[in-house]
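Late entry, written up from scratch paper. The run itself happened at the end of the previous shift, but nothing got recorded in the book at the time, so transcribing now.
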Amino acid sequence: MAVEFVPIDRDTPYLLPPSVQDYLPPDHLARFVVDIVDQLDLSQLSAVYAGRGSRPYHPAMMLALLFYGYSTGTFSSRKLEKATYDSIAYRYICANTYPDHDSINSFRKRFLRELKGLFVEILVIAHRIGTLKLGAISLDGTKIKANASKHKALSWQYANALEAQLTQEVAALMQLAERADNSELPDELIIPDEISRREDRLAVIRRAKEEIKARVRERDAKNQAEYEEKVTKRQQDEQRTGKKPRGKAPTPPTPGPQDKDQVNLTDAESRIMPSADGGFVQAYNAQASVDIDSGLIVTHHITQQPNDKQEVEATLAQLDALQAAVGKPSDLLADTGYLSERNVTLCLDQDITPSISTSRQRHNVPLAERLKPLLEGEPAATNDPVEVMALRLGTAAGRALYAKRKSTIEPTFGIIKHVLGFRQFLLRGLVAVEGEWDLVCIAFNLKRLHVLSG
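Output as recorded:
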């Protein structure tokens, strides 16, 4: 019996349907992104255009293009331009127009600051349709590589040594120039060019040293404040108990630049941070909190601090600003990297119950240890907020709630890095990186909302 194949006909009058509405199925992500963008208030973006020169692409189309690109793992403006020719979904979004990569990149950089407001608008839409009902949230951070190499970092020790070397070489070249009239020099040695090259490098080194000094001044002020706080607390404990506190007395900090203090010459606002594999990476610390019921990102920000302990306050400030629009969470879950008495108190002051781990949890906990909270009965009364939290986390209900942390925030970062493929920022500088993180979180939420909407 002869097999009847689907015919190959490359000569039909229409390669595509005559209307872009016929390009995609009704439940396609590209349609969903366009529908959400059409509900956003883009008046601030449209008002920026002066109406002179060539006709610009509409902000609604450019936003949908970026949102869909980031939600499907296409971040480069050149790849986005190529996709408008190759991909049916992108041709639908752009209505058979083809924005060039310069236009896409310029639009992205121009409206980075407006993305934060659009992120909130999308959360409001999710809240209005009943998808987002803020309850407990899970907070965590992840290191994302900067658009810079850690090998382009200049340390304080090396900067001083290189500055001395180049200064000496400039002086030697000046002496050669003075003797040039009386002695022959190699033809390939052009003294003005050699001096200019070294002076340019010296200017870069001096700027780098000033940046290091500025960072050190901030660090010294912070270390001094922490030292004074520890000394004061130690004195108060001694006065309250009448006994000398156990342990070593706090050591006063050593001010001034250290040999290993450094600045990156490619992206000076990025930082060397420890990575999960035990090494170090030139990166930013990207923070996010996720609603444990819907899986939507609720707050997010970028920090230059490798440690997460200072990031609870920034998260609570964002939650406070969101309260009128989407409500207030009941609980905040975080790992031991966020643990401090101040963070616990800050949560309680906003009527948010903190569930911050007081110790690193082990795998395969023995049965007797898991049953201990059930067998001991009611915990002893205490007024210390950290101890109260620790006792609550030790109960069956507390452990069940905290267990939801790993199944919410950690998969979020896993999807962003390994499904969407966003492992490195394209832009440089703290402000630009914050805008790009806004874009990533918007894309994640749109993809998640599309799944939740069915």
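The mean pLDDT is 87.
(Scratch paper discarded after transcription.)
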